Amino acid sequence: xxxxxxxxxxxxxxxxxxxxxxxxxxxxxxxxxxxxxxxxxxxxxxxxxxxxxxxxxxxxxxxxxxxxxxxxxxxxxxxxxxxxxxxxxxxxxxxxxxxxxxxxxxxxxxxxxxxxxxxxxxxxxxxxxxxxxxxxxxxxxxxxxxxxxxxxxxxxxxxxxxxxxxxxxxxxxxxxxxx
Length: 179
Fold this sequence. Notes:
Elements: H1 2-15, H2 19-33, H3 37-44, H4 47-57, H5 61-79, H6 82-93, H7 98-112, H8 121-128, H9 131-142, H10 145-178
């Protein structure tokens, strides 16, 4: 939709700027439109997108990623697609240095602890994920790239088996129904 593409384009434009460049953009925006960039973003976007764009316009990449993780978490809680959530978590945390990752997680916990029932992200995830999924999430949050890969591989190996088992059970049902 046009609104989503505008927000994505705005996010892409803001995310590549240095703090100095962001300052110049904010000044130029205010001079040109008689409104601050932050006010325009707050007026034009809603929910998590608004939070992400405002964080980006202020140069707070940790808060931007924290808002993006929260959006992915909300989608997971609706769809129960842990694979998509873990892929999203990996894409947001994978390339970060330890200090940056810790800042993103601290920002997330500060911003969203209340929405998670007073729990931090890793504690909240332990109630929703199990087995290799939980281990992969913990590895991603702690920066253990090798562990995250191992658990992702384990999940990938288990998923085809489940599908194969379901197909076999369905075939057995069909055969017994035909008899």
